[in-house]
Design goal:
With about 200 residues, this protein is α/β, with parallel strands linked by helices. The protein has helices at about 20-25, 30-50, 60-65, 70, 95-100, 115-125, 145-155, 165-170, 180-185, and strands at about 10-15, 55-60, 80-85, 105-110, 130-140, 160.
Length: about 200
């Protein structure tokens, strides 16, 4: 029988690709607000489970902007920000070496653009042997039609997830389950204000 792949916190790293003002300005205001809010919750969720985060910024940063404040303010010591020239973040040796050093083989990806940097970075990660999960509510593009990019990623082995799916797969069980309760106790109190679903 084939082993089912699960999201396990100790095996994961988060990857936020090019979430910069230049790209976000190309989508409508309501969607822009959702991306900011939901990606902030995503960062906080990964922080709680001590999942390291890699953030990339496409150069020139002076024109395209730094990471959005609404997301960046949640980054902790487990996060590192890199600037890149390549659409595929794996082509940057500094980023690749950092990822190698994390020794986490499952990348959970958010950011933009779906049909350029997200697509090429996911293909690069797959090529390096990573399992790749893309957060479908946390990716976007200036292009209206990204179906070909999504289909290609799926065909190559990328798994798509929602924020709610990730939330409950990490949390694992309701309060009172002994092993889960013990694990969560070691991480500290779970943030009461962290929602279990993405803002729609």
């Amino acid at each position: 029988m084939r082993a089912v792949k699960r999201i396990v916190a100790d095996e994961c790293c988060g990857v936020i690709v090019d979430l910069q003002g230049f790209f976000l300005a190309q989508v409508d205001k309501k969607f822009r607000s959702r991306i900011k809010t939901n990606t902030g919750h995503f960062v906080r969720l990964l922080n709680y489970f001590r999942i390291p985060i890699v953030v990339t910024l496409e150069r020139p940063v002076e024109r395209k902007g730094t990471l959005l404040h609404e997301v960046g303010r949640h980054l902790d010591d487990h996060a590192k920000v890199f600037e890149k020239n390549f659409f595929d973040l794996c082509q940057d040796k500094t980023i690749k070496n950092h990822l190698d050093g994390l020794k986490r083989r499952h990348a959970i990806v958010a950011g933009c653009e779906t049909d350029v940097c997200v697509l090429q970075s996911c293909l690069g990660l797959l090529n390096l042997g990573y399992e790749v999960t893309v957060m479908e509510e946390l990716i976007f593009s200036s292009s209206r039609n990204v179906e070909a990019a999504m289909a290609r990623m799926k065909r190559e082995g990328v798994v798509f997830s929602t924020y709610k799916m990730l939330f409950y797969e990490l949390v694992e069980a309701v309060d009172g389950e002994r092993t889960v309760e013990k694990k969560l106790a070691g991480l500290g109190p779970f943030p009461d204000d962290l929602p279990d679903s993405a803002v729609q």
